[in-house]
């Protein structure tokens, strides 16, 4: 299955599980954050790039940095060093 189709299927699965009317069937925060769609290196890279352009980190967490650096090294993937590491002062 093409990667794009798989990503769409995973996104739909996450949304369906977040929008469950029955509370016991609805994903918890931890389960949602651990979902396959949110545990994607390219998605994380895209979010970090967006945060860098914006000059503010609010979509990713600093604690994930080491995990994704390790993942990139293990898989032989490039991990940019230009991402912001600290929040810029508010204007």
Automatic annotation (TrEMBL):
Keyword Kinase in record: yes
Superkingdom, taxonomy of origin: Eukaryota
GO cellular component: cytosol
Keywords on record: Kinase, Transferase
GO terms of biological process kind: intracellular signal transduction; phospholipase C-activating G protein-coupled receptor signaling pathway
InterPro entries, A to Z: Kinase-like_dom_sf
GO molecular function list: protein serine/threonine kinase activity; zinc ion binding
PANTHER family: PROTEIN KINASE C, PROTEIN KINASE C, MU
Name this polypeptide is given: Serine/threonine-protein kinase D3
Species per Swiss-Prot/TrEMBL record: Acipenser ruthenus
